[in-house]
């Protein structure tokens, strides 16, 4: 879900008793860098202010006006300090602009052979002053991996790439709309959540009764054009194996109605009452539709786990790839750093190279296996792993989360459903943390290493309580 040419505001700090040429050089380097990285710079022209930099209050006003003109485009701001810079100029610009977006502070290094008056930068010191003023003004900001670093350095390019991801997460979560389809299964108190706490954080939940979805699906005919189109989409997406044609039509009809609901409500994600009413009253599983949605970056979570699908969305924003909701399900033999991740069958296709449609054997023991067609079967191979969970802590009235990184492995695993083996450092300590802090048994996995991005976005800018394992 990477942005195509994201727009980033640029502030070039300046201080009048440092060489003008440093600002001129920096502006050219910044524009070249942004072009290389396909970022759209919202930057002052060289005639808008002295050299396009920001120092005086008047220049702050000019830059702030520019940012306000592009406020709907700008997802973040990068402050560049080719010299010491004027800390008030930077802070005033951000305050006057009214932007509430992530800010990255960069500073140029001095070169030992260029410490004379005509080349000296003092940006090392200036960065501290800028950050001090941002702190005083109550403006949130991010730092680079190294205190000073040239923009052309690969280390800074990685910092900038990660910062763009932070901006994507923050912007996405402040505007997300989630559909809660049906009631939480009675046996799943674990997925309770507070709509009011979510709404205070910009997260809107739209509910619909499952009977409305099933009723609309029942009224569709096998011959309807939309049903035929969705049936073709399903057949293209996954080998259907021995799934009977009547079950496939039921799955396709559900798919039509769910897509219509998402389109009507402009939803970014869903959490669905996936059992047992659906199987008992409609005769199929909704797993395939959920998998297709998640693969297409519209994540869908089981058991009306709204904060689970919120986590899926956050993690795909960070990585640009699909996420999957899983159970912390089993130990892996006696290995203290490995466990089995499992769900009965709705993971995005990206996790299941051997994907096939089948039934849900465990659920089938109570509702009849013949009513569970549509579940997916597949094993996730070795790949990078970021895992995590967002939750509303209702007694405390806060949003909280944890994230960590590990690896999915190719260790042998003979079972059914959607399954994976995870290797996580200090897994026992993590389980202890989850249990002591009342987190759900559901966790989200993503094939990336983006834990630090999520911690910065959610902890620093969203101001949630975030633990990084």
UniProtKB/TrEMBL annotation:
Keywords, comma-separated and alphabetical: Carbohydrate metabolism, Isomerase
Recorded GO MF terms: isomerase activity
Residue ranges constituting the L-fucose isomerase C-terminal domain according to the UniProt record: 341-469
Domain of life: Bacteria
Full protein name: L-fucose/L-arabinose isomerase family protein
């Amino acid at each position: 879900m990477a942005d195509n040419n994201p727009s980033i505001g640029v502030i070039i700090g300046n201080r009048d008793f440092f060489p003008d040429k440093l600002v001129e050089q920096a502006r050219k380097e910044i524009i070249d860098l942004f072009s290389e990285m396909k970022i759209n710079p919202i930057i002052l022209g060289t005639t808008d202010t002295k050299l396009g930099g920001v120092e005086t209050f008047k220049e702050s006003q000019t830059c702030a006006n520019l940012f306000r003109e592009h406020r709907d485009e700008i997802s973040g701001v990068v402050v560049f300090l080719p010299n010491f810079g004027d800390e008030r100029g930077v802070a005033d610009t951000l305050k006057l602009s009214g932007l509430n977006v992530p800010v990255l502070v960069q500073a140029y290094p001095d070169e030992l052979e260029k410490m004379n008056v005509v080349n000296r930068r003092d940006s090392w010191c200036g960065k501290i002053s800028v950050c001090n003023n941002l702190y005083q003004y109550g403006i949130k900001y991010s730092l680079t991996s190294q205190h000073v670093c040239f923009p052309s350095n690969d280390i800074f390019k990685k910092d900038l790439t990660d910062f763009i991801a932070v901006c994507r997460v923050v912007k996405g979560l402040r505007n997300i709309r989630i559909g809660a389809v049906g009631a939480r299964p009675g046996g799943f108190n674990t997925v309770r959540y507070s709509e009011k706490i979510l709404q205070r954080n910009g997260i809107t939940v739209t509910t619909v009764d499952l009977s409305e979805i099933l009723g609309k699906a029942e009224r569709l005919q096998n011959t309807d054009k939309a049903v035929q189109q969705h049936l073709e989409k399903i057949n293209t997406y996954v080998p259907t194996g021995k799934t009977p044609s009547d079950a496939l039509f039921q799955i396709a009809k559900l798919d039509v109605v769910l897509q219509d609901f998402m389109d009507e409500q402009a939803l970014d994600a869903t959490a669905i009452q996936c059992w047992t009413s659906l199987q008992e009253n409609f005769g199929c599983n909704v797993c395939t539709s959920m998998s297709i949605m998640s693969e297409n970056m519209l994540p869908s979570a089981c058991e009306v786990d709204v904060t689970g699908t919120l986590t899926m969305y956050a993690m795909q924003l960070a990585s640009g790839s699909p996420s999957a909701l899983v159970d912390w399900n089993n130990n892996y033999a006696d290995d203290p750093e490995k466990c089995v991740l499992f769900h009965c069958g709705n993971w995005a296709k990206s996790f299941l190279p051997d994907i096939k449609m089948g039934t849900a054997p465990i659920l089938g023991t109570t509702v009849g296996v013949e009513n569970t067609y549509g579940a997916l079967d597949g094993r996730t191979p070795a790949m990078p792993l970021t895992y995590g969970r967002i939750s509303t802590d209702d007694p405390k009235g806060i949003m909280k989360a944890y994230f960590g990184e590990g690896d999915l492995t190719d260790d042998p695993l003979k079972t059914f459903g959607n399954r994976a083996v995870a290797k996580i450092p200090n897994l026992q300590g993590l389980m202890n943390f989850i249990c002591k802090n009342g987190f759900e048994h559901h966790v989200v996995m993503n094939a990336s290493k983006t834990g630090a991005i999520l911690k910065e976005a959610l902890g620093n800018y969203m101001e949630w309580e975030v633990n990084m394992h």
